[in-house]
Amino acid sequence: MKYTIGCLLLCTVVAVMVSGCAMTSAQGPMTPATGFIYTDVKGPFATGEGASAKTGTSECMSILGWVALGDASLEAAMQNGGIKKVNHVDYQTMNILGIYSKLTVTVYGE
Question: What's the number of domains the chain is made of?
Answer without folding.
Answer: 1
